[in-house]
Amino acid sequence: MNILIVGREFTGLIDHIKSIGANYCILRDKKLTKVGKEKDKYVYADFSSRETILAALESLPWQPDACATIYENYVLPAAIICEYYGLPGMPVASAEACTDKYLMRSLFAKAPEPISPDFAEATSLEVVKDFAAKHDFPLILKPANLAKSLLVTKSSNLPELIENYQRTVEHINAVYAQYAPDRQPKIVIEEFLEGTVHSVDAFVDNDGTPHVMKEIVDYQTGYDVGYDDNFHYSRIMPSKLSDEEQAKFLHCAELGCRALGMKNSPAHIEIIMTAKGPRIVEIGARNGGYRERMYRLACGINTTENALKVWLGQQPEIVAQKHEPIAVLELFPKVPGNFAGIAHQKELEQLQSLEYLSVKPAPGAYIGKSSDGYKMAAVVILHHSDVAQFNQDLDFVNRNVHVITETTD
């Protein structure tokens, strides 16, 4: 079996491919400057157009049996390659919708039930003002095709909206150049959905049937925990939604995948549970961030194996073997400045539930808000089979652990 990994590698995926004895090759993005451990497996490609993508295939050592990608930037190239070879894959039009929130919202609007907020493409300040005149505040501005909450802002009134739009326009080209160089910058304005934030992963088979996992992840945003910033502070399982809410949530997730026409793909569905029912924020044609570790530790489900199954046109297996608590926390600074450390890091490292800790910036490096285009300063993962121990350790992190910055003013 020959597996083509499109764009860039992911250690968990490569380890799984090796474990089943398959061959693999990485169609590596020429624009990536950092070289990984698998460089002997690289074939380089220019992902800026269909023609340059297909031209790079001539250098592959064999014809692939499946295309795999776990990064947003390469969902569309993978679909193009699958179409070219006649492999099980995402339809190109669906891949385009999964990586462009304007196209995505347009298809959600055609679903048989309401599943998404009202929206418009923010092509000018005049369009933004007109949308604001017809909708209640707060309103959300977001790039149409970036990930990780980059440049996402919430505005409570018109002056704030104008300021946020102008700041987004000022920074958007630089952020796209860094994180999505092959994409055209585009901004969407949409209704703010009042409610709790959640997500779930699914695997869509060759017939377009979504196999939605039963295990829902609850979020806290930066706003929920006292930050003036719209990022995902925590991802926690098991969910605290009621059984009735979970049933509605999973139904909404399935409708969203079908509305996009997804096939042969993992899916990550982010939903807000509003007073009117669940409403989809977005669907990514990939597993969610940290989900490989979350579902493996908490549920005994191998999401990487299931992703490969649907990429090959096979049926996924998503029945949980256990249900243990797990939390992933992304730490951003409340005040932008030079990184000075993580408060109570030594105590954090001694917690029984600590599964993983990664501190990103070097001492003294400038760090800032997600809404200004910066990424997290640290990631903390907690997991324990003992619920009481887990809750005690999570409470310690929530009360004590935060990013310390120093300003030069």
Describe what is shown at a glance.
By secondary structure, the protein is of the alpha+beta class. Among the domains are: 2-87, Rossmann fold (3-Layer(aba) Sandwich), CATH 3.40.50; 118-192, ATP-grasp fold, A domain (Dna Ligase, domain 1); 326-406, Aldehyde Oxidoreductase, domain 3, CATH 3.90.1170.30. It has helices at residues 11-19, 50-56, 75-85, 92-98, 101-108, 125-134, 158-179, 243-259, 291-299, 303-311, 345-349, 387-400, and strands spanning 2-7, 23-29, 42-45, 66-68, 119-121, 139-143, 153-155, 187-191, 196-204, 210-212, 217-221, 232-237, 265-274, 277-284, 326-331, 337-342, 354-359, 366-367, 378-383, 403-406.
Name the descriptors.
9-stranded antiparallel sheet, 409 residues, Rossmann fold, alpha+beta, Dna Ligase, domain 1, single chain, 12 helices
